[in-house]
């Protein structure tokens, strides 16, 4: 743990010494910070976001737990919000040359990472930002301003399978193997980045029920099933509904196609580019299969039962199901 604390502020190092910790997925440890599990550098960045970020009424914040389709949501929201200035079929559309994470920065990985205070003058308004933080951890100004929050949820089975594969690519060899079974035990105990998974879901779900104009709750599975209708819902929520002319002109279809798994996966920047989120990661690892239900190829029936039981208990009474 010494190594992973070295580049942190003294304040953060001291805090870490007081927090409960467990074995990490790609760092030595995950720490229980403000009720969720987090890596050391993320904790430092989140503290800075909480202290320094002031939301504007026009801001849009995209929120997810890792591997729920963040990359997809970023591509879609960016394209919808910029379609007046950058027509979808423009030969210079930014998605043709940039990974979605380069277009929509994470508060905690890009903007406030490494003890930086970002220069927001370079980010055009309305600002489109992203986070993996649970709702409870968002800065007060996000909760109290007119800022809109879009949450994308994905079923826990696919989210687990996706994160396990992703971490396989990112975990340093020196940390040894984290078997699928060990990782599953950790996941079921809630020990996963920004988890417990169910708390993350419920935080945004409950808020979306209370502040329908400000928090939109989307599901990956519904986006897959009928992308166009979810795109329309999102555009309306953002105050940028598609006009009849746009719909007739096929703009919704074009956005679906541009942001689809296959289109993005095949872009040069996503095949051979690096560092869209972490300096040491390859962009291609963000595009694995992009389907619903791949868990069936990985999880045993008893694993499925165990996680289903946990989810049933945790979500009972919430009206939320997967
Ligand atoms: P799989 O590992 O199941 O394939 P995140 O973007 O939050 O890191 O989530 C990554 C998951 O979303 C991966 O799931 C990835 O393949 C999938 N994904 C990435 N781009 C997508 C897209 N345009 N449409 C649908 N799924 C996508």
From TrEMBL:
It is an enzyme of class 2 (transferase). InterPro entries: P-loop_NTPase, Sulfotransferase_dom. SUPFAM superfamilies: P-loop containing nucleoside triphosphate hydrolases. Its EC number is 2.8.2.-. Gene3D superfamilies: P-loop containing nucleotide triphosphate hydrolases. Keywords: Transferase. Residues 57-318 form the Sulfotransferase domain. The keyword Transferase applies. Pfam families: Sulfotransfer_1. GO terms for molecular function: sulfotransferase activity. Belongs to the sulfotransferase 1 family. This is Sulfotransferase. It comes from Coffea arabica (Arabian coffee). The lineage of its organism: Eukaryota, Viridiplantae, Streptophyta, Embryophyta, Tracheophyta.
């Amino acid at each position: 743990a010494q190594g992973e604390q070295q580049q942190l502020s003294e304040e953060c190092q001291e805090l870490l010494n007081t927090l409960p910790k467990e074995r990490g997925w790609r760092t030595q440890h995950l720490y229980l910070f403000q009720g969720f599990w987090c890596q050391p550098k993320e904790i430092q960045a989140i503290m800075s976001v909480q202290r320094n970020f002031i939301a504007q009424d026009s801001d849009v914040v995209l929120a997810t737990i890792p591997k729920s389709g963040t990359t997809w949501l970023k591509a879609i929201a960016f394209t919808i919000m910029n379609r007046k200035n950058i027509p979808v079929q423009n030969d210079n559309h930014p998605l043709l040359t940039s990974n979605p994470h380069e277009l929509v920065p994470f508060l905690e990985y890009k903007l406030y990472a490494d003890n930086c205070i970002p220069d927001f003058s370079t980010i055009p308004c309305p600002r489109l930002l992203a986070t993996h933080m649970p709702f409870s951890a968002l800065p007060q100004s996000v909760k109290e301003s007119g800022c809109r929050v879009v949450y994308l949820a994905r079923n826990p089975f696919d989210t687990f399978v996706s994160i396990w594969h992703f971490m396989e690519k990112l975990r340093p060899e020196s940390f040894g193997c984290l078997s699928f079974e060990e990782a599953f035990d950790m996941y079921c105990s809630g020990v996963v980045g920004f988890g417990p998974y169910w708390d993350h879901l419920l935080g945004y779900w409950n808020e979306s029920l209370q502040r329908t104009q400000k928090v939109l709750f989307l599901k990956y599975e519904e986006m897959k099933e009928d992308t166009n209708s979810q795109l329309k819902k999102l555009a309306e929520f953002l105050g940028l509904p598609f006009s009849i002319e746009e719909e007739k002109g096929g703009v919704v279809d074009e956005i679906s196609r541009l942001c689809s798994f296959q289109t993005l996966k095949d872009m040069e920047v996503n095949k051979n580019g690096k560092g869209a989120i972490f300096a040491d990661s390859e962009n291609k690892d963000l595009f694995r299969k992009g389907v619903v239900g791949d868990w069936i190829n990985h999880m045993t029936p008893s694993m499925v039962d165990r996680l289903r039981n946990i989810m049933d208990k945790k979500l009972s009474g919430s009206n939320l199901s997967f």
